[in-house]
Amino acid sequence: MIYTNILGSLKWLKAGILTAIAIGLCWACFSAPVLADASVGNAEPRLNTNLVAYYNWRADETTEETRKVWEHHINAWANSDLEDIMSDYSEDSILILNHTVYKGIDQVACVFDSLFEIFADGNNIIVPETIEGEVIYITWNYTPLNDHSYDGTDSFVVRNSIIEYQTIASRLFEKYPVCTFR
After folding, report:
1. Residues 170, 152: contact at Cβ < 8 Å?
2. What is the Cα–Cα distance from 85 to 162, expressed in whole angstroms?
3. Vertex 177, ends 74 and 130: CA angle to 5°?
4. pLDDT value at residue 44
5. 81, 73 contact by CB (below 8 A)
6. For the segment 104-125, what is each residue's pLDDT rounded down to a tens digit?
7. pLDDT given for residue 174 in this prediction
C-alpha cells in the first residue's frame, strides 16, 4: 500500500517537474525578445518580428543546402570513401558517439574508418531522412553477420555546407567499439 502511494507521488512529481520545465522554456523563448528591449533605458517593450521573418525566409534555402550535404554524405557513406566523407567536416566539427566526443578532422576520420569496418559485412537499413532547416535526423537498423540487429540514430547540424555537429547513438558500439583517443 505504501509502495503504491510512493509510486503515485513520484509520477505526480515527475509530471510537475516536466510541466515546470516546459513552462520555463516557453517563458524564456517568448519573453526574451521583450526583456531584451526592456533592459535598454527608455526603450518600449516590443517583439522583434524581423527575426521571425528572417528565419522563415532562410528556412527553404537552409533546407536545400542541408539536403545537398546529406546527399553527398550518404553517397560517400555508401562507397565507404573516407576522403570524400571527410570533405563534409572541418577542424571545428564535433561528433558525439554514445557519449564520447570526437573533435576535428583526425578524430572524426578515425570514427568513420572504424564505422566503415564495422558496417562492411551485414545488412544496413537507413530509414528515409528527416531534414528541417540545418538539421538532419535518421534512424537505422544494422545486422552484422552472425549477430542480432541493432537500432541506431544519427543527428546532424549543417552550416555553411559543413557538418558542424553529428551525434550517433546505438548499442552496436558497445559490442563493436570505434577508435579511442583517450
Report:
1. yes
2. 11
3. 30
4. 45
5. no
6. 999 999 999 999 999 999 999 9
7. 95
125 vs 81: CA distance, rounded Å: 19
Distance, in Å, from the CA atom of 148 to the CA atom of 171, rounded to the nearest integer, reads: 11
Q: What are phi and psi of 167, to 5 degrees?
A: -120, 145
Torsion angle of alpha carbons 160, 162, 168, 173, nearest 10°? -170
Q: What is the pLDDT of residue 53?
A: 33
pTM of the entire predicted model: 0.67
User: Which three three-digit cell numbers place residue 24?
Assistant: 520555463
Tell me the average pLDDT of the chain.
79
User: Which residue intervals of the chain are DSSP H helices?
Assistant: 2-38, 49-78, 82-86, 104-118, 172-175
**Can you read off the three cell numbers belonging to residue 124?**
544496413
In the block, which residue shows the cell 517563458?
27
DSSP letter at 88 equals T
The three cell numbers locating residue 165: 555537429
Residues listed for the chain: 182
Cell numbers at 29, concatenated: 523563448
In angstroms, the Cα distances linking 69 to 4, 9, 23, 164 are: 52, 48, 36, 11
Nearest alpha-carbon partner for 167 in 153, 178, 181: 153
Q: How confident is the model at residue 17 (pLDDT cuts 50, 70, 90)?
A: low
C-alpha cell at 53: 521573418
